[in-house]
Specification:
Blueprint: E1 4-8, E2 11-13, E3 18-20, E4 25-29, E5 45-46, E6 56-59, E7 65-67, E8 71-73, H1 87-97, E9 100-101, E10 107-110, E11 113-118, E12 121-123, E13 130-133, E14 136-141, E15 144-146, E16 157-160, E17 163-168, E18 171-173, E19 179-181, E20 188-198, E21 204-206, E22 214-225, E23 229-234, E24 242-254, E25 258-263, E26 277-287, E27 292-296, E28 304-312, E29 318-322, E30 324-328, E31 333-334, E32 368-370
Parallel strand pairs: 1-4, 1-32, 2-6, 3-7, 4-8, 6-10, 7-11, 8-12, 10-13, 11-14, 12-15, 13-16, 14-17, 15-18, 17-20, 18-20, 19-21, 20-22, 21-23, 22-24, 23-25, 24-26, 25-27, 26-28, 27-29, 28-30, 28-31
Antiparallel strand pairs: 5-9
Length: 373
């Protein structure tokens, strides 16, 4: 796609097809709910919230993806055609009035293999930016996701029921989870996040749907700068399952309310018998400032199993520990945990790792060119 601003309705990709969005190009999603409509409800509030097709869909495909230094703009903050509010205003109204908003996701990848996203900027999605379901093999390299902090339900990248997903060298700020690893409809495993930077958002989450089981997650060299939660595992008895073999290494956090937020009671009034269990969770060289450090297992029979080695925060950070079996490594923790020695090694390496969110591409001034569907 050459330079210019192009407006399109929903696009469906075939196997092996790669969309190249050049540096000076913007592919913008239509703001007309009718072009996304599945059941007559897109652009409205109901009790289901599944009435819109996504802007871009990969379904049953192998190979291909989206590359280039251009922008895909979901236009979530623009007024919907035929309405008096934006997609985001509709979502916020659903929250206050009750019900679920029917708004499109920016990109869905369903039951596909070997999909690549490289250098592309994803901007202002009405809902989730990228949702994966039943995917085997996906790479996100050098991605920028940029959406306001108050844009409701605008997760960055959500791998669900998927395997072999890599997210690396990417920059994400959004209105919900920066990344959320889920397992609501199947097992999710072998997910790697390497050398990434997160800004505003709800942090790096596992859950809340973990009923299919989540395992073998590696997170290395991540900064979380101003996210509400930092490293987070969240679930409850309505959607719980086993989360195991999760390793966090060389993590820098600052200005987070809950830098560590491992909680098996995500929804206090949840009902069900799907007990969430977190085992073999390892934190090594995790450094932050202040806030609440939450380690909350389900009960004495289903404790949180965690190992902490070089987990260091300001002395005014506060541990909240319940039903947790905690091991500590040679570098210990700071502040000290009850019954554990105070870590003495004060790590200062994070000062060199904070980077500003990359500057946006220059403002586009080209006329909009509709794409035939």
């Amino acid at each position: 796609m050459a330079s210019g601003r192009f407006i399109s309705g929903p696009l469906t990709f075939k196997s092996g097809v790669t969309l190249w969005v050049d540096r000076d190009a913007v592919l913008a999603a239509s703001t007309d709910p009718r072009v996304y409509d599945k059941d007559g409800h897109c652009g409205s509030i109901d009790d289901k919230g599944n009435g819109c097709r996504p802007f871009i869909l990969f379904r049953g495909t192998q190979g291909g993806g989206i590359v280039g230094e251009g922008v895909i703009d979901g236009q979530g903050g623009e007024t919907m055609v035929g309405h008096k509010e934006t997609w985001w205003q509709l979502a916020r109204r659903a929250q206050t009035e009750g019900g679920r908003q029917n708004v499109p996701r920016l990109i869905e990848v369903d039951n596909s293999r070997d999909i690549t996203f490289y250098q592309i900027t994803l901007h202002n999605s009405p809902n989730f930016h990228v949702a994966l379901k039943g995917v085997e093999g996906a790479t996100f390299w050098g991605i920028r996701i940029d959406t306001p902090a108050d844009a409701r339900n605008t997760d960055g990248i959500d791998p669900g029921a998927s395997q072999d997903v890599t997210i690396t060298h990417s920059f994400i700020r959004t209105g919900d989870d920066n990344v959320a690893i889920k397992a609501g409809s199947g097992t999710t495993s072998h997910i790697s996040l390497i050398d990434n930077h997160f800004y505003w958002g709800h942090g790096l989450s596992i859950g809340s749907e973990t009923v299919g089981g989540v395992s073998d997650i590696l997170v290395q060299n991540l900064t979380l700068d101003g996210t509400t939660s930092g490293l987070r595992i969240k679930s409850d008895v309505s959607r719980g399952g086993l989360v195991r073999n999760v390793r966090y290494e060389h993590i820098c956090l600052r200005d987070n309310r809950r830098p560590l937020d491992f909680d098996t009671h995500y929804t206090p009034n949840a009902r069900g018998n799907q007990i969430p269990v977190y085992r073999n969770i390892i934190l090594r060289d995790v450094v932050g400032t202040s806030g609440n450090l939450v380690l909350r297992g389900f009960d004495a029979a289903h404790p949180l199993g965690i190992m902490l080695d070089g987990v260091r925060f300001n002395m005014d950070a506060h541990w909240q520990v319940e039903f947790a079996q905690i091991q500590t490594g040679p570098e210990g923790t700071r502040p000290a945990l009850p019954g554990k020695p105070l870590g003495t090694n004060v790590y200062v390496g994070c000062s060199q790792r904070w980077v500003p969110f990359p500057a946006k591409n220059k403002e586009q001034t080209f006329p909009a060119i509709p794409i035939k569907r």
